[in-house]
Write a structure and sequence with these properties.
By secondary structure, the chain is an alpha/beta fold. Strands 1, 2, 3, 4, 5 and 6 form a six-stranded parallel β-sheet that branches. The two termini are 14 Å apart.
């Protein structure tokens, strides 16, 4: 998985999933090899093997990760014995600023990846209610990675 851009998503209503697929198509159009999966499809062992990662997640309820990211989230926050120092990543967080915990799932994942040694290569993008700006951000991310 060394040279592959891993695009992982967690989506409650489909917006984050649709965006992940759109970014996947964008990356492929630029001849970037990708691996597109739900967050819960990735083990901590697989995460540790990755060198390039883009997380696209929405936030639900009281700042929670969507159902298809809950297992990943629990494992990510339940361990401190993994080394992500070779991982370069970015996060697109989707949310609604009328909620107190705006984009919390994405913010939490971003902070935890940093804590475990990963390098954020482009500041997290917090999208309010829609995905405006996410394709421009993704193009920049793909160029950098």
């Amino acid at each position: 998985m060394e040279n592959i851009l891993n695009i992982l998503y967690a989506s409650q209503t489909g917006t984050a999933e649709d965006l992940a697929y759109e970014i996947n198509d964008l990356a492929k159009s630029k001849s970037v090899e990708t691996n597109l999966k739900e967050l819960d499809d990735i083990s901590m062992d697989k995460l540790q093997e990755m060198s390039k990662l883009l997380v696209v997640t929405s936030t639900t309820g009281e700042g929670d990760v969507p159902y298809n990211g809950e297992l990943f989230f629990e494992k990510l926050f339940g361990t401190s014995d993994i080394n992500l120092s070779k991982l370069r990543y970015g996060v697109i967080a989707l949310g609604d600023s009328s909620h107190y915990e705006f984009c919390k799932a994405g913010k939490d994942i971003d902070e935890r990846l940093k804590f475990l040694g990963a390098s954020c290569i482009l500041d997290r993008l917090d999208c309010d209610y829609d995905t405006e700006g996410s394709i421009e951000w993704s193009q920049k991310f793909i160029e950098i990675i």
